[in-house]
Design a protein that fits this description.
Blueprint lengths: L3 E4 L2 E4 L2 E2 H8 L3 E5 H14 L5 E6 L6 H9 L3 E4 L2 H9 L7 E3 L6 H10 L3 E4 L2 H13 L4 E8 L21 E2 L3 H9 L4 E7 L10 H19 L6 E3 L18 H12 L5 E4 L3 H4 L3 E12 L4 E5 L8 H5 L5 E3 L10 E6 L8 E8 L7 E4 L21 E5 L2 E6 L4 H5 L9
Helix pairs in contact: 2-9, 5-6, 8-9
The structure holds ligand LLP.
Ligand LLP binds next to helix 10 and helix 11.
Length: 421
């Protein structure tokens, strides 16, 4: 559920008309709903009520500091995967004891940064990383809590580019080797092995793969405890999908995910962490864009808009579907027409939708991409020297620009021309 509804013929974000934001900010822009972010965080938080728990928002989905602050104020922790994300979380006021550090390629510099600033735990993904973290922590005279991410070799049944739990994926250690890797970790100075981490992929639309993974984690917990490890925290990852296509079956709800987790690992008495990103932020955001031209092709109509693949890369990168709707509510019964909806970038891949049925639009009209709050702005680039677009946060009847559109000069002046030229 989200808070983007038509009211008096105009698409609103909560109590603010999208057209009013566009008039002030200019298209294209991202807009997020505080109420939706809050609601989604709370759904997860409540779904884990049965355990001592922390919902660590996977901030890679949307790392604007205003979003982090909003979630942090609700009690969220953060799942970070880089030094930059760690610093951003800290800058947004998230305390180190609520930050977990994930990722296959943490550098020693990143480890040091987090150890200096405070960290809840590292989710270790390999033996060389374990060795490096042990050395860094020891050299600083500290001991850091760690979990080890296991790769349970289950099929997440999602897009191949965002599946992470099969043995051929680069993530985690093979679960079959967990016993020896845990023994090695326990022998290293500077590390305190406290738990198990698993994350099998993103945009999962079924519960079954989670169930398989959690069962394997439960078995492993028992095995490792029998080996003498004090396994007391389970990080069950993120990955619950959202309904991008309204006509499709809705994916499972956080409540069902929480119930499944309780069924599979509740009896172990562990503290529980989860790392949802997309479900918290995805349907809390729109990408709003203006139609520049409607052009007649040989056999089709192109809707050319002022947003492009550099602003929202998901359709080009994953063939992802985003619902695209007019900002002015179409009259009831209006006949729909077919468009190829494209951006201005000089590649055919800069296509958001092909042969999409929509109410007719004209140059100057605004359209909104739904479900663009996660993996939208964060994956944007300046390709074709298009400045990053602004982000706006709505709260009831107020809105604020939470990232300004840079000027051309701000974008251009980051380059320097060497003196010999
Ligand atoms: N935890 C870990 C270790 C992850 O790698 C991810 C996502 C998450 C949590 C959050 O997963 P979520 O709840 O958001 O599904 N750019 C892609 C998605 C990449 C996901 C990467 N990892 C997209 O636009 O679909």
């Amino acid at each position: 559920m989200d808070h983007f509804l038509y009211r008096d013929g105009n698409l609103h974000a909560e109590d603010v008309a999208i057209a009013d934001i566009a008039a002030q900010v200019g298209a294209p822009f991202y807009v997020y709903s505080s109420a939706t972010l809050t609601r989604h965080f709370r759904l997860f938080d409540e779904a884990l009520d049965w355990a001592d728990h922390l919902v660590c928002y996977a901030m890679k989905a949307n790392s604007n500091q205003a979003v982090l602050k909003l979630l942090g104020d609700l009690g969220a922790g953060m799942d970070v995967v880089s030094g930059g994300e760690y610093m951003r979380a800290k800058a947004a006021g998230i305390p180190g004891e609520r930050i977990v550090f994930s990722g296959v390629g943490k550098t020693r510099a990143e480890m040091r940064l987090a150890l200096e600033g405070g960290i809840r735990q590292f989710n270790i993904e390999s033996e060389p990383e374990m060795q490096a973290l042990s050395e860094v922590a020891s050299s600083m005279g500290v001991t850091v809590p760690v979990t080890i991410r296991v790769n349970p070799d289950v099929d997440a049944k999602t897009h191949e580019k965002i599946a992470t739990g099969k043995s051929e994926n680069k993530f985690g250690i093979p679960i079959s080797r967990a016993k020896e890797v845990y023994a090695a970790a326990a022998a290293l100075p500077g590390l305190e092995v406290i738990g198990i981490d698993v994350h099998i992929g993103s945009q999962l639309t079924q519960l079954e793969p989670f169930g398989q993974a959690f069962e394997k984690v439960a078995e492993l917990t028992k095995l490792l405890r029998a080996e003498g490890h004090d396994i007391r925290r389970l990080d069950l990852g993120g990955g619950l999908g959202i309904p991008y296509e309204r006509s499709n079956d809705a994916p499972p709800l956080p409540q069902e995910f929480g119930q499944l987790a309780q069924d599979k690992v509740g009896h172990l008495g562990c503290e529980i962490e989860i790392e949802p990103g997309r479900l918290i932020a995805g349907n809390a955001g729109l990408l709003v864009s203006e139609v520049i031209y409607v052009k007649e092709g040989a056999d089709r109509q192109f809707m050319i808009i002022d947003a492009a693949m550099n602003d929202l890369i998901r359709p080009a990168m994953y063939g992802a579907y985003h619902d695209i709707v007019p900002v002015i509510e179409p009259a009831a019964g209006v006949e729909q027409v077919k468009y190829d909806i494209v951006g201005p970038i000089c590649e055919s891949g800069d296509t958001f939708a092909k042969q999409r049925m929509m109410p007719p639009v004209a140059a100057g009209d605004l359209v909104a991409f739904r479900s663009a709050g996660a993996y939208g702005a964060v994956m944007a680039s300046e390709y074709n020297s298009r400045p990053l677009i602004p982000e706006v946060l709505v709260h009831e009847d107020q809105f604020a620009v939470i990232r300004e559109r840079p000027t051309f000069d701000e974008m251009i002046n980051r380059d320097t021309i060497p003196s010999w030229l």
